[in-house]
Amino acid sequence: MSTHAVSHDDVIHFDPYGKKLGMWIFLFTEVLLFGGLFFVYATYRYLNHDAFHEGSGELDVVIGAINTVFLLTSSLTVALSITALQKGDTRRSVNLIIITILFAGAFMMNKYYEWTLKYEHGLFPGMDHYNELSAGEAQSFNLYFLMTGLHGIHVIIGAILLLIIAYHIKKGNVTKDRYVYLENGGLYWHLVDVIWIYLFPLFYLII
Amino acid sequence: MSEDHSTHIVDYKFNILIWIDLLIFTFITIEIAQFDFQTLTVVIALVVATIKSYLVATYFMHLKFENKFLQAIVIGVGLLFFAVLFILFTDYFYL
């Protein structure tokens, strides 16, 4: 508390709107990054319709659906965490972030299981079964690994960011009146959710 | 400038209602995928995904309560994205 007078200056120059605007602009670059991959996916899927059909038949819809529910629920817990912090309920806010991170872990466990199955079937790029695939089928697996892999990295980064933010909420650096860091962490997390909202039907559902 | 930063608090209950909507749309997209609508299949999946994204962006990401400029640039990027997607689709549908 003794540092309160010192940090007074920071409070005056604290610019939550600027921070949030910066976060959104960063999210736009993420949208265009994944957008480019979606366009590549759409194009090759059109050119190799049957091969992509085979590829998506290999994926378990149940696992995909469970992972969708995990991510949607984790988005909810982040949103609730912001509400809790705005209402000054620090403990609940931190707990909700912890729950979010647990969902992220569960999501990655499912992803690990799914990738392991592919690996055991020799479908990872460079493996025996993969090398026997037609060009189109190989393409569909390349895009599957690239896009879900890049998304998985985002899930891990998002979970780490949220963990750091939870620590700062506990330390009292992120508070009821200065919650933009939690908001920005939440924005990143929701973007990861939105990307999955598109990945799920494209890879698991469309036949 | 202080009123720039929105302090709108979204109720716990309201967040949960949005979550239930999202689960319902997930169920719908899984059920619909069992039918083959030919070329429309992809379009339908994208439309449902876009409705879900709209819900996440508007309520979970608090866009509804942000200032007009932020809302405008998000809509702008969204339009750019769908414009490129549209151009891509027109190219391949008329091959």
Describe the protein in words.
The complex is a heterodimer of chains A (207) and B (95). Chain A has 207 residues and is mainly alpha-helical. Helices cover 83% and strands 0% of the residues of chain A. Chain A has a domain at 61-204: Cytochrome c oxidase, subunit III, four-helix bundle (Four Helix Bundle (Hemerythrin (Met), subunit A)), CATH 1.20.120.80. Chain A has 8 helices and no strands. In chain A, α2 crosses α3 (49-57) and α4 packs antiparallel against α8. Chain B has 2 domains: 10-61; 66-95. In chain B, 72% of the residues lie in helices and 0% in strands. Chain B is built from 3 helices and no strands. The longest helix of chain B is centred in the C-terminal third of the chain and has 26 residues, at 68-93. At the A-B interface, α2, α4 and α8 of A face α1, α2 and α3 of B.
Q: How much is the average pLDDT of chain A? A: 89
The major β-sheet of chain B equals:
none
- How many DSSP H or I helices of chain A? 8
User: What is the tally of beta strands of chain B?
Assistant: 0
Q: What's the SSE pattern of chain A?
A: HHHHHHHH
The biggest sheet of chain A, with number of strands, parallel, antiparallel or mixed sense and barrel status, is: none
Q: Radius of gyration of chain A, rounded?
A: 20 Å
CATH architecture grouping of the domain at 61-204 in chain A: Up-down Bundle
- Count of distinct structural domains of chain B: 2
CATH topology of the domain at 61-204 in chain A: Four Helix Bundle (Hemerythrin (Met), subunit A)
Structural class of chain A: mainly alpha
DSSP summary, beta strand count of chain A: 0
Strand and helix order of chain B: HHH
Structural class of chain B: mainly alpha
The most extensive interface between chains reads:
A-B, 46 and 45 residues
Helices of chain B, by number, come to 3
Radius of gyration of chain B: 17 Å
